[in-house]
Write a structure and sequence with these properties.
By secondary structure, this protein is of the alpha/beta class. It has helices at residues 3-8, 14-29, 31-62, 77-123, 126-129, 134-176, 181-196, 201-224, 226-231, 235-282, 288-331, 346-354, 389-396, 420-428, 445-450, 457-466, 492-506, 522-535, 548-553, and strands spanning 70-72, 75-76, 359-364, 370-374, 377-382, 405-411, 414-419, 431-434, 510-514, 540-544, 556-560, 573-574.
Length: 576
């Protein structure tokens, strides 16, 4: 279809869109999940209906039956009461098990959605990740996925309540027979009016999705940039931003409560009016038993109707959470490895990860320039700030424009080629990269350095000693004490050196270090230069730096020229 036709084509109706999302959500949950939810809900409804029927029979029969006379199924009243109490107790026990199993199903579903989303984020290309906002991603993981599961639960609950309402309305006909038809028709009209009424839940749900992202973004900005806020005395600015967003949240909550209360008042008034009019029209033709039973069943039918409507509104109000999830996942759809992507076998990958390489060659498809790294030498990239040194390192490491990158690895007189996104993922396992701005996680110091890898404690302590960080071992708990990062517990130089140690502990055949002596005093910089000089005799080393002493130490220096103002990409690298 052409773009012009697309522009003039009518958009799908909201109800159609809602149905499409519900169908997709049901398929994603799986029929087994839905069958278990429906079975648990139906069991609970049937017990509720059986208990009500037994209670009505007992109450209506108690006035005419003697204490010893039969009441329910030939049982005396005492036995009937015992049966009723037992049924209520059984219902409570089964209800508890239903709630436990329902929560297990819900949490299992949300955990699966979270793991899938995180997996997609980790597997996405850099170009795909550029379209993600931190606040939106956090909102999906923390709120919208929960809303997705709640929407599915409420859809099942709506079906359960519709079934219960149908049983109650059928019972009204069985009890009242011909005289109950006017009441039944009036209740059905009330049901249709309630279900067709536009509640605005869908629109409010979309507002909720946007608000969740805004709140997550504001809180993340506040905690991540706490020092910058205090330094600029900008706490008031962020608090005002937070207050505006929470005010929108309060309005949203009030609006939902107002609409719910309005519906309840409208429903109760209509049901009472319908039942009262029916009683007046029937006059004395109704017996006390029929009148009482019919009114009780009609009340329960109206209560089920209320549950149906509330479940429908909750379902629609939370369904935009799933809509937001699908939109973000659509931006992160894993690209199928193209024919041009080249990879190597896993066994060979493990061998190369522990071997000493003789050469690494990287080049981009769109650029004739290539970079060669030879064994037992230090290659340094330098140039003015903003010239693209970090961008070049990111591309060489397979962290940027992966689809356009190619790598040739030479080791033990053999050569392997990797390319594309699939090849970049394998290069991540072969290169130890220390970015200029290291990141710490709220975990122990050991976990921050190893990130799940295994390493003897002596090796960690040796690296801390070599870079003048042994004082970190004196903290209560040592390597295993968790780091609280609401503020910055370490200096910039300490964080930078920890990032270098993290890369060196990986012990890969290639080290890539972005400004390894930045943020360091003279003594710490000398320690880092000594380590780099030592490691350059054992593996391939690539660095970017402005440090004159480090550049003098390099075997080869590549100068990156500043790009023209209209072209912010890195200029071609040139060797002097």
């Amino acid at each position: 279809m052409s773009s012009a036709l697309k522009a003039t084509s009518p958009q799908p109706l909201p109800r159609r869109r809602q149905f499409q999302l519900l169908k997709a959500l049901a398929l994603e949950a799986g029929w087994r999940h839905l069958a278990l939810l429906s079975g648990l809900s139906t069991l609970n409804s049937l017990l509720d209906i059986a208990g009500l029927g037994l209670a009505i029979t007992l109450l209506l029969g108690s006035g005419s039956a003697t204490n010893a006379g039969p009441l329910i199924g030939g049982f005396p009243i005492a036995a009937s009461l015992g049966l009723l109490v037992g049924l209520i107790l059984l219902r409570g026990l089964i209800q508890a098990q239903v709630d436990i199993h329902r929560e297990r199903l819900r949490s299992g579903f949300t955990d699966r959605l979270r793991q899938q989303l995180l997996h997609q984020v980790f597997e996405a290309s850099s170009a795909q990740l550029d379209r993600l906002g931190r606040g939106e991603l956090l909102a999906l993981l923390m709120a919208d996925i929960n809303r997705t599961a709640l929407s599915l639960d409420q859809a099942v609950r709506m079906g359960q309540s519709l079934l219960a309402m149908g049983i109650y309305l059928a019972s009204v006909v069985l009890v009242g027979r011909a005289t109950a038809w006017p009441l039944l028709l009036a209740l059905l009209a009330t049901t249709a009016a309630a279900l067709l009424q536009r509640s605005g839940s869908w629109g409010l749900g979309r507002i909720q999705s946007r608000l969740n992202a805004a709140l997550q973004r504001t809180v993340g900005d506040g905690l991540h940039g706490l020092k910058a806020l205090r330094a600029a005395t900008a706490e008031g600015w962020l608090l005002q931003r937070f207050a505006q967003e929470t005010a929108e949240g309060r309005w949203l909550l009030r609006e939902r409560v107002r609409r719910r209360a309005s519906f309840n008042a409208w429903r109760d008034t209509l049901v009472v009016a319908v039942a009262g009019l029916w009683m007046l029209l029937q006059g004395e033709t109704l017996t006390a038993e029929v009148l009482t039973t019919t009114l009780v069943l009609a009340y329960r039918a109206s209560a089920s109707l209320s549950t149906v409507v509330q479940a429908r509104r909750l379902c629609l109000g939370n369904l935009p959470g799933y809509e937001a999830l699908r939109q973000r996942r659509g931006q992160l759809i894993p690209r199928q490895d193209e024919a041009s992507d080249l990879t190597i076998a896993e066994g060979t990958l493990a061998t190369l990860s522990a071997a000493r390489w003789s050469q690494l060659r990287w080049h981009a498809s769109s650029d004739e320039n290539a970079l060669h790294l030879n064994a037992n030498g230090l290659v340094a990239i330098t140039g003015p700030s903003g010239s693209g040194k970090t961008t070049l390192l990111d591309r060489i490491c397979g962290l940027l424009h992966e689809e356009d990158s190619h790598w040739d690895v030479s080791c033990n007189a053999e050569r392997w080629r990797l390319s594309g996104l699939a090849g970049a993922r394998q290069m991540h396992q072969l290169i130890a990269y220390a970015p200029q701005n290291a990141v710490l996680f709220e975990a122990s110091l050991r976990e921050n350095l190893l990130l799940g890898a295994a390493c003897p404690e002596d090796a960690i302590e040796n690296w801390l000693q070599r870079l003048g960080l042994t004082h970190l071992l004196q903290r209560p708990g040592g390597l295993d004490a968790p780091l609280a990062l609401a503020q910055d517990p370490f200096s910039g130089g300490e964080i930078h050196r920890l990032g270098l140690i993290r890369a060196w502990l990986r012990d890969k055949p290639v080290d890539v270090l972005d400004e390894p002596t930045a943020f360091l005093d003279a003594r710490a910089a000398a320690q880092v230069r000594a380590v780099i000089r030592e490691r350059a005799r054992q593996r391939l080393i690539l660095i970017s730096s402005h440090d004159p002493e480090l550049l003098d130490q390099a075997d080869r220096v590549i100068v990156v020229a500043a790009p023209p103002a209209s072209h912010p990409e890195a200029a071609p690298a040139q060797s002097p």
